[in-house]
Write a structure and sequence with these properties.
It is an enzyme of class 5 (isomerase). This is N5-carboxyaminoimidazole ribonucleotide mutase. Catalyzes the conversion of N5-carboxyaminoimidazole ribonucleotide (N5-CAIR) to 4-carboxy-5-aminoimidazole ribonucleotide (CAIR). It is built from eight helices and six strands; from the N terminus they run αβααββαβαβαβαα. The protein is α/β, with parallel strands linked by helices. It is globular, with a radius of gyration of 19 Å. The chain binds the ligand Nc1c(C(=O)O)ncn1[C@@H]1O[C@H](COP(=O)(O)O)[C@@H](O)[C@H]1O. The site of ligand C2R has 17 residues, from loops. The site of the ligand Nc1c(C(=O)O)ncn1[C@@H]1O[C@H](COP(=O)(O)O)[C@@H](O)[C@H]1O has 17 residues, from loops.
Amino acid sequence: MTSESVQSLIDQLEAEAAMDRPVEATPEIGIIMGSDSDLDVMAGSESGRPGAFDVLTEELGFEEQTDYETAPEARFTFETFVVSAHRTPELMYTYAETAEDRGLDVIIAGAGGKSADLPNMTASIAYPLPVIGVPVQEKSLPSVIGMPQGAPIVAVDAGKSFNAALSAVQILARQHPELQERLLAYHEGLQQGVGEVSRDLHERGTPGFRDT
Ligand SMILES: Nc1c(C(=O)O)ncn1[C@@H]1O[C@H](COP(=O)(O)O)[C@@H](O)[C@H]1O
């Protein structure tokens, strides 16, 4: 028995898949997570480490798409859902199966706990669409990456949704030169920051550097 709230999501995904919208109107990246308790890791937390949402919106010019009738201004977008292999298997199946028809080019899937099966199951159903798995905790790593031969998934280290988003954009950049430029600009900024910190540490010495 599927609950009403899950069934309405399934219906919406299926309706979107049948619509054949232009690529400019649909998200390129789908972000799914096993629970909203994963949001700080998957999106980034206000007080802690940045995540996929942060790098996509702040560094790479993406917008989050929440409404499919009125697409955001930004050319490249992502969507976010809570989907669980264990709690809502039908929703996971529909999400993965409709992903390509809904315009997605890559999925980032994160799950926590020891039985983090959402990324690997999504990868199998969405195949050949690439899925990047994010183990939300260290203990989730074996179940995210442990796929049998012939059933691929790519994955990042525990908690590194930030890198998952960069990898997703690397995939998209093969077809979109403007994304390649944004990735290079991000990398240049990263290098610039390291260079500045290095000079500061060297010139002020360790105690002086630590004092600020
Ligand atoms: N690993 C999975 C799956 C799945 O893989 O299908 N569904 C939920 N979860 C994980 O359970 C943890 C606790 O979830 P709750 O906080 O909702 O109890 C989360 O980290 C979630 O990703």
